[in-house]
Amino acid sequence: MQTTFEKIQEIIAEALYCDKEQVTRDANLMADLGAESIDFLDIVFRLEKAFGIKLPKGDIEARARGDLADAEFEVQGTLQEKGLARLKTIMPEVDPNRIKNGLKVKDIPTLFSVATFERMVLERLGDMAPVSGAPASKPATATL
User: Fold this and answer.
1) Complete DSSP assignment for 57-84
2) How many domains does the chain have?
């Protein structure tokens, strides 16, 4: 029986046409595995189908924004100090040095690693508490 990580690893490798061994938790989907924005849609679709869950579009940005006022979160598309701090909190799998001044909201997906998708899936399955404290929906889990 596959672990959740092994299933995610297999799905990402298939979607990106790469070797499974390249798909480590630390691997950045864009920089290390060559993913493009369109690939995220495919990966999300495959994960939703495999695990019987929903991964809402824009979930990470919405969690990072939380209850911050627009100007506290971003100004002209650039994350502000409080937005950056919140992003570091909700994405503990990302090296905090990558979340720095000048980061644009549109560039948040460049931070996504395999561990980001693993965390999101585990939260939806109820196997991990949501990092932000926001409740994650708990749909029926899929058999692996």
Assistant:
1) TTHHHHHHHTT--HHHHEETTEE-HHHH
2) 1
pLDDT of residue 8: 97
Domain-located, residue 137: no
The CATH number covering residue 30 comes to 1.10.1200.10
23 within a domain of the structure (yes/no): yes
The residues near 39 (Cβ < 8 Å, ≥ 6 apart) are 15, 16, 29
What does the pLDDT look like over 41-95, one tens digit per residue?
Answer: 999 999 999 999 999 888 888 888 999 999 999 999 999 999 999 999 999 999 9
Instruction: Give Cβ neighbours of residue 137 (< 8 Å, ≥ 6 apart).
Output: 53, 54, 124
Domain span holding position 17 = 4-125
Give the residue carrying structure tokens 């991990």.
Answer: 128
131 domain residue, yes or no: no
